[in-house]
Task: structure prediction
Amino acid sequence: MDKKAIEKAVEKIKKSSHLTAFTGAGISAESNIPTFRGKGGIWDKYDPIILDIDYFKQNPEKAWPHIKDMFYNVIDKARPNPAHYVLADWEKEGLLKAIITQNIDNLHQKAGNKNVIEFHGNTRDLVCMDCGRITPVQQADMSKNPVICPHCGGLLKPDFVFFGEPIPEKAMKESIFHTQNADVYLVIGTTGIIMPASILPYQAKQNGATIIEINVTPSEYTSKLTDIFLQGKASEVLSELNRQLLRN
Ligand code: NAD
Ligand code: ZN
Result:
């Protein structure tokens, strides 16, 4: 880990008045949830068409078994890792104002964060394609294929954003607020290529925020946008930042 860069980041975080974190699949990689891209990523094993909204509507009985395999069988068992816990501590201390996450795994909430903006929805709930009612996963018969609505028998879809679907309006509004008002913006474990989420760090920078990035490898942001790049695993880098913050 780059000691100088860590020290610079600690200074910025300590002095920040509105610290916002923007997280991607990389922060949950150490909780054994595979990322989409990269070695061992989900797209090595599955065809992204499964998460296309039109394909899903037309072929729900083909898509659902894969969706269960990819997400529900994995995410149910997953536990937060030290990276999630550091962010929860920072929120409790009043240092971190919000997390904007692209993840759908609920791990920020499991770690204790309250102000989590789920840009891409979540896996906790299912939404009926016919009557629009929400059914929590625990109340649905997940052994059925496809999974159907207990109210009307319509097709249930995970309440996360599929390819071809818009971003939930409330999440979009809140994300813009915590992006435009941030003076320090922490970008953790994201490739920066999923639109429109990937635009957020650019907006933060335009509004004058310092961009601190944590990733195991350089991303789309690193050379274009990042002010301080902390190369390493999210759990290790965040734990080190936290140790130094506590020492100061
Ligand atoms: P991605 O899979 O495209 O990229 C993951 C990024 O994390 C890469 O840049 C990689 O270098 C980095 N990374 C891997 N391990 C890391 C570690 N230990 N510490 C720090 N960085 C690490 O993910 P994305 O950019 O977030 O976009 C993919 C989309 O897929 C998102 O919309 C997200 O919702 C969804 N997704 C979610 C989950 C989840 O909920 N956990 C998992 C897979 C994909
Ligand atoms: Zn219904």
